[in-house]
Each structure stands twice: as structure tokens, then as C-alpha cells.
Amino acid sequence: MKKITKGLVFASLLALGTGASAVPTITSHAADTYYGFTNIGSSVVEIRDTAAQLYDSYGDPLGQYLPMGSKWKTSLENTLGDGSYYGVATDEYVKATDVNLSASNGTSKYGQTSATNYDGVSVTNADGAAVYDINGDPVGKTLPVGSDWKIDLQNNLSKGTFYRVATDEYLSANDVRVYQNTISYPENKDITTRPGRPAGLYDHNGQYISERALGPNTSWYTDEFCDIGHIGYYRVSTDEFVRAVDVY
Fold it and tell me: In the record, which residues are listed under signal peptide (predicted)?
């Protein structure tokens, strides 16, 4: 994920289109587990064939279910190692494979919607990502783990969510993680974490740092505000960021 400063925003944003090609591989993401949050605007998910399990932000089941056919507002996508989840309440998520997504641009149930919320995808499956056609059927090709690809469309099928990387070539959301360019703004102030629970830390890609956190109701100096996946973060240490919603 590239990091760009405010003055270079417009010069650095990528134009996505049909027939997108690979960008150079920088590192393997196979060991990644938490990939962060993406603001997807005002959207709706409809529970598909059976009742859908609810999960927390780490992908752990909560033992609660949403009934088949029910519809829920969502504005947050949580991308974990086993695929994407959509937020339907505070720390409550449903798997993308259990729902139909009606995106904010009006796409209803199955079908394609613009992937402009993202700049591309990185292959995270250690065995590589199988390539599928528009119907979700494999075409006999595989893209290597760690490779990065531009995308322009998100294809929501009964088989799951797929991202287009070339003409009639798609990757399953379960084999990749989405990424966006990171935009940074200089800051010079103190912030205080909210009371009640520790505030999670994330790296510059919005990936969760599981072994560290900030104590509740503690103050920290920040020198930078970042837009990572359309979610606001403050930097509190070298490559350690806290979500803006977790501080005041």
C-alpha cells in the first residue's frame, strides 16, 4: 500500500479500468491475519439462504444469528484472513459469503458494482488465488501469493464476492485482501483514548497489531493523521496508529 502526502493526492491516485495489470510484488502477505477496516458508504446486506452467524471484529463467532431474508444497514467492511465481513452493529459482523450486498450506488442483490472504494487486491492464499470468470467458475489459472493487482469491479454472486483483475477474470474475496492508497496529513497535538477498554493499534496498512494496545483514558502525542481505507487514524509511534473513533 502506497503512502502519499496531502500535496500529492491527486497526482498519485490510480485510474482503474478494464484489463488491469499486475503491479510489482513488494512482500508476501500470506502470514497476515487482520487487514483493517474500509468505509463502504451507505449500503445494505440481505441474509441469504440460511440464518447468518454474527462475528466480532476478530472473526470470532458470537453465538447469535440474523434470520434469513432480513436486511441490515452497513457502512463498514472488515477484511480478515478468511475473507470479508460487513458491520451491522457495534462489533457485530456478518460474513460476505452469507449475504447479498446492495451497494450505495444502487446495485441490488447479485451483480456487479464499482470497486472504486479500493485501489487493488493482494493475494493472501498461500496456494495462490484461482482465477474465475464472471459466473464464478474457475478458468484454470492461478495468481501467486503476495502479488498485487488493480481492480475495477466487485462481483457479488451466490458463490461469494469476486474482484475483477482483467477482462472476464476475477479473484475470490477469500483469496485476497483489498488495499487502498494511504493519505497522510501533518498533525501536532495530544489525543486521549476513550475510557472503558484499550484502544487497538494498527500499522500503516490498517492491519491490526495484536500484541499491543493503548490503555483506556490515556494521552498520547500524534504527529500525523492518516486516511487508510477511508478510515481515519492518528500515528502515535513508528508504524503504530490508533483509529480516530477510539480517541478524542
Answer: 1-22
Dist. CA 145–CA 127, nearest whole Å: 7
pTM of the shown model: 0.46
Instruction: Please check whether residue 47 is in contact with residue 174, taking contact to mean a CB–CB distance below 8 angstroms.
Output: no
The model's pLDDT over 178-223, given as tens digits with 9 standing for 90+, comes to 776 677 889 999 999 999 889 999 887 677 787 889 999 999 999 9
Q: How many CB atoms lie within 10 A of CB 126?
A: 11
Q: Where do we find the cell 440464518?
A: 51
Q: Residue 122 and residue 144: Cα distance in Å, rounded?
A: 10
d(Cα 73, Cα 88) in Å, to the nearest integer? 6
Among 17, 90, 85, smallest CA distance to 52 is for 85
